Amino acid sequence: MSNNKQLKKKTLTGLIWSFVDLMANQGIQFIIMIILARLLVPEHFGLLGMIMIFVALSQTLVDSGFSQSLIREKTVSKLDYSTVFIFNIIFSIVIFLLIYFIAPLVSNFYNEPQITSILRVIGLVVFFQAISIVPKTILTRKVDFKAQAKASVISSISSGVIAIVMAYAGFGVWSLVFRIIIQKMIESFMLIYINRWIPTFKFSMSSFKRFFGFGWKLLVSSLIDTFYMNIYYVIIGKMYTTRDLGLYTNSRQLKDAINNGITQSIQRVTYPVLSSIQSKEAELKQGFKKLIKLTSYVFFPVMLGIAAIANSFLILLLGQKWEGAVFYFQLLCISSILFPLQAINLNILKVKGRSDLFLRLEIIKKVLVTIALLVTILLNLGVASFIVTAIITAHISLLINTYYSGKEIGYGTKEQIKDIFPAYLTSFLMAIVVYSLGLVLNTSLLLTVLIQVTTGVFIYIILSKISNKSALDDMINILRPLLLKVIKKK
Predict the structure, then answer these.
(1) Predicted local confidence at residue 160, as pLDDT
(2) Helix/strand/coil (H, E, C) string of 266-298?
(3) Which residues are within 8 A (CB) of 487 and not within 5 positions of it... i.e. 6 or more apart?
(4) How far is CA 83 from the centre of its chain?
(5) What is the dihedral sign for C-alpha 29, 35, 38, 39?
(6) The predicted structure's pLDDT at residue 243
(7) Which residues have a Cβ under 8 Å from the Cβ of 3 and sit 6 or more positions away?
(8) With left for phi above 0 and alpha for psi between -120 and 50, is residue 319 left, alpha or beta?
(9) What whole-number distance in Å separates Cα of residue 273 and Cα of residue 468?
C-alpha cells in the first residue's frame, strides 16, 4: 500500500473514531445536561459559571503547550514523555495551591459565600488533568482515537450517573462540581491503563527546554484564548444576577456539547495528520482546501439548524423554567459556526512551526475583542449584547486567521471565503425557513421539532444541488463506503 493510501486510511480511521467519540461522548454529555437542568435550577448553574474561568485557565496552564510540542515531533523518546509528565504533576500541585488560596478573594468578588468551598474542591481536577496529558498525547500521535473514545465515554457515563443521583438527592451545585472532578479522574486513569504507559520518572532538562521552546508561545496563546472565551462568565456574573448567569451557562454548555465535540474532533485528527505531510506543499494545500469545504458544508447547517429550532427544541428538552435561555442559546449557536474553521487555520501555523505567529495573532485578535467588550460593558444592553459581540469578533478573527495561514500554504482569505460561502449562504437560508415554520406551526413541541428538522434537511440538500454540488458529492463519496460496510456486516 502506498504512503498516500496509508495516510488516507489512517486519517479516515482517525476521523471515524474521533466522530464516534463525538457522537457518544458529546451525546451522553448532552443527555446528562438535559436531566440535570430538569433537576436543578438556573441559580445552580450560575454558581458553577462563576468559577469556570479558573477551571479552564488552570487546565490550560497544566498542559503548558507540551502536548502540541510532543505531537509535532517526528520521534519522541520515553525520557521525553517522562520529563513532560513530571513537570505537569509538579506544576499541577502549584496551581492547586494557588487556587486554594485565592478562593476567598473570588468569593468576595462575586459576594457569594459558597464560591470558596466550590473552587477549592473543583481545583482537584487540575491534578487529574496533569496525569492524562502524556497518555492522551501518545494515543493522539498514533491517531488512535478508539482508545480515547472508550475512556471518554465510560468516564462521561459514570460521572453523569453520579451527578444525576446527587442532584436528585438535593446536593444542588455540588452535583455539577463532582461531575467534573469524577469525569476527569476516571478518564485519566483509564487512559493510562489502556495505553499501558508507565513513566520512568526521569527528568531531562534538554528535553524540557526543547519542548518548552516551542510550546510556551502556544501556552500563552491558549491562556489568552481561554481567558477571553471564559471572561463572559465573569462579566455576566458580576454585572447581572446568578439566575442570568445560570441561563447563559447552561445555554453555553448545551451548545458546547454540540459544537466543541465537532471542533475538537476535527482539530485533533487534522493536526497530527497535517504534521505528517508538512513538507509536501501541494498535498498539504489540497488536503487543507478539501477539509475547509467539507467542514463548512457539515457544520454550518448543523449549528444554524439547531438555532432555528431552539424555540421548540430547548423547551421540549429542558422544560418551561429555561424559556429565558432560548435566545441566548440561538445567539451562541450562531457565534460558534466559524470555530472549526478557526481551529483548522490555526493548526496550519502549528504544523509549520509558526508558534510565534500563532501568539501574535492571538494578541491582535484579543485586542479587538477587548475593545468590543469594553464598548458592550459601557452600553450595558444586557446579556445578549455580549453574545452579539462574540458573533462579530468571530467573523473578524476568521479573516485574520485565514490571511496569515493562507500565506503559509498559498490558500488565502479570498479563496477560503469563496469555498465556504455557498455553505454559509444555503445554511442561513435554510435556517430562516425552518425558524419561520416554527412560528406558524400550531402542533405539539415534539411534532414541531420533527417537521422543522425534516424540512431543514430537505431544503439544505436541494439548495446544495443548486449552489454547492461539489461539496454534496464529496460528502456522498465519504458516506457511501461507510454505509456499504455497515450493510455488508448485517
Answers:
(1) 93
(2) HHHHHHHHHHHCCCCHHHHHHHHHHHHHHHHHH
(3) none
(4) 28
(5) negative
(6) 93
(7) none
(8) left
(9) 27
Burial class (CB in 10 A: 0-12, 13-18, 19+), 243: middle
- Residue type at 348? I
Q: What cell does 141 get?
A: 500521535
Q: By CB neighbour count within 10 A (0-12 exposed, 13-18 middle, 19+ buried), where does 33 fall? A: buried
Of 237, 229, 294, 220, nearest to 256 (Cα)?
A: 229
Closest residue by Cα to residue 48 from 113, 152, 122 = 122
User: What pLDDT is stored for residue 220 in this prediction?
Assistant: 78
Measure the CA angle with vertex 428, ends 427 and 431; round to 5°.
85
pLDDT, averaged in runs of 10, over the chain (490 residues): 52 57 70 91 93 86 71 74 85 92 94 94 90 82 74 89 95 94 92 81 79 72 82 92 93 83 63 56 73 85 94 90 93 90 78 73 86 91 92 89 80 86 93 94 92 94 83 65 54
